[in-house]
Amino acid sequence: MNPASSVLLLTTLTGFGYGLIAWLGVLAGLGFLPRAPLFLPVAVVIGLGFAGAGLVASSLHLGHPERAWRAFSQWRSSWLSREGVASLATFPPAILFAGLWWFVGADAVATRIVGVLAAVLGLVTVFCTAMIYASLKPIRQWHNPHTAPDYLIYAVFSGAVLLAALWSIWFGAAEGLAAASVIAALAACGAKFAYWRFIDVQKPLVSLASATGLSAFGTVRPLDQPHFTENYVLREMGYQIARKHAVKLRRIATGLAFLLPALFALLAACGILPAITATVATLFAFVGLFVERWLFFAEATHVSTIYYGR
Question: pTM of the prediction?
Answer without folding.
Answer: 0.89
